[in-house]
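Chapter summary example.
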Amino acid sequence: MLIGSVIFTGCGPQSTQKSAFKGHDISGSGLGQNLAMQDRNGQLRTLADYQGKIVVVFFGFTQCPDICPTALSQLAQAVDSLDETAQKNVQVLMISVDPARDTPTVLHDYVQLFHPEFEGLTGTAEQLHKTAQSFKAFYAKVPSLQTDQYSMDHSASFYVLDQQGKARSLLDGDASPSDIAHDIRLLLEKKS
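The structure predicted for these 192 residues follows.
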């Protein structure tokens, strides 16, 4: 499993102002704008479906041995640390990098183990490719020595998008629940 994140730097003059985010400030990057994956009912979902909510996106897969369960546990702790009103204004999305095995039902059942409000999104190989490209997220199938067995390498980062669906913070996959919650609260306070 690949553990890592993508770090973005600006091409213009460097700001001397330090970001208030715990993660990397990716405001203006346009990341994630082409999200288009299927929910548990097979309905196509885009960022427009989550308008008005802070969206936290994580790429993973249900047969992931350690990174994905840990990340989803961190996200659940972060969401649970928010007050009840804030929790209603946050949507965590796990996008499967293994659509061949992660059917809508399998993925839904998996994310529900971590938090009842989490959603899993899957889809066709083409939908995944376009969505991952939109986030600049990496994933690759890793063959096993056993026939018909494989694993998936993938980026392990948390993308935090504001209420208008604009990418604002990119947290490393090992970010603490308190850092994740901090960036969510910051965006809820700004009401971007």
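To summarize the output: Helices lie at 67-80, 84-88, 104-112, 125-135, 177-190.
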